[in-house]
Write a structure and sequence with these properties.
By secondary structure, the protein is of the alpha/beta class. The chain is built from 12 helices and 15 strands. The structure holds zinc ion.
């Protein structure tokens, strides 16, 4: 059938709506230029429908920073529409299975992803209980004689495997002090900077019982260099002042400073208030009441409760009430896999 020419009024209208549509898309893209996506909102108990810990920061329409890579997060990464070639950084909070187990799956995927540069990785240094990120990756992938996944680190000329950038000649390990007083006074470390997209990633050592653990903060800047958006991922930690282990109410002030005025704090939230009746639990995780106190003091705009385990899910309403009772009045969201949260500028 021959195509009939559109009457000219139709063509004008079509052009008008296309232009309007493009303008609207442009606006949306600008507004959406810095956002958080949950890849895994669960933990390592039986949370049907939730991958384990993993969060993604999108900057200017692409997934730039992935924070944690727990079981199931590589699947979610694909479902989110993200492509590994766009990642600037993989930041690992700590080397527990529920935060790092998909790292070899992502390395394998690197074979297919078509990027010609290694992906920078950052993570904690070692202590007497766990290796640091460098030894972890060496023993898992890179040791030519003993790494179980050494086939992933073949020379690029042989088979085009392009995997991770790490090791002594990079800043991949972020020092976590062993001394509790030093941990309480820890300064944030700048771990990555993107000049192209005006953001920086900072890490702060935090206390997760006796395991080296890092909270991460992604800061986005305006053209004049002032801070525009701030997203934080807490890591597993107890939020308490490490130098005063006997004081259950003393908060980690270095951490309060670190998250000050954040638009979004992804709060690891595995355990309900009552769960802390179990002796020793307060060394590993933060009680909801402590979470509320810290978020209020730091003037956090939005808490996204994530890394949810059975205990927290069973008593979610009570736990949220504890956060409120502690004085926090900002927004509280309960994370779900693949959910997206936009950062809003603190001044808006
Ligand atoms: Zn965990």
């Amino acid at each position: 059938m021959p195509t009939l020419p559109l009457p000219s009024i139709c063509r004008v209208l079509l052009l008008f709506f296309i232009t309007l549509g493009l303008a609207a898309c442009g606006e949306t893209q600008k507004e959406d230029s810095f956002k958080l996506q949950v890849l895994g909102s669960g933990g390592h108990d039986d949370n049907a429908g939730r991958a384990s810990s993993g969060h993604l920061v999108w900057v200017d329409g692409a997934p730039r920073v992935m924070i944690d890579i727990g079981p199931g997060t590589v699947l979610r990464f694909g479902e989110s529409g993200a492509e590994p070639k766009d990642l600037d950084l993989l930041a690992v909070t700590h080397l527990h299975v529920d935060h790092v187990n998909d790292i070899s799956a992502m390395a394998k995927r690197g074979f297919f992803w078509g990027r010609d540069e290694k992906l920078p990785v950052r993570g904690p240094s070692a202590n007497t209980n766990l290796p640091g990120i460098n030894d972890f990756l060496t023993e898992l992938i890179y040791n030519e004689r003993s790494a179980p996944y050494r086939y992933l680190s073949l020379d690029a000329d042989d088979d085009n495997y392009i995997v991770y950038e790490y090791g002594p000649d990079t800043d991949s390990e972020i020092h976590v002090p062993l001394d509790l007083d030093a941990l309480a006074a820890a300064e944030p470390v700048m771990t990555f900077e993107s000049e192209e997209h005006d953001y920086q990633v900072w890490a702060l050592p935090v206390q997760h019982a006796h395991i080296p653990s890092l909270a991460y903060r992604v800061d986005r800047y305006d053209n004049d260099g002032s801070l525009r958006y701030r997203i934080v991922v807490t890591s597993d930690q107890n939020l308490r002042d490490p130098s005063k282990p006997e004081c259950a109410d003393c908060m980690n002030l270095a951490y309060v400073n670190f998250i000050q005025d954040a638009d979004i704090v992804v709060q690891h939230f595995p355990i309900e208030e009552r769960g802390y009746e179990h002796p020793g639990q307060t060394l590993w995780h933060a009680q909801p009441s402590m979470i509320g106190k810290v978020a209020d003091m730091a003037n956090v705009k939005m808490l996204v409760l994530s890394h949810l385990m059975q205990g927290a899910l069973k008593e979610l309403n009570e736990s949220v009430e504890e956060i409120r009772n502690a004085g926090y009045t900002g927004k509280i969201e309960v994370a779900e896999d693949l959910k997206v949260y936009k950062a809003k500028a603190s001044s808006e």
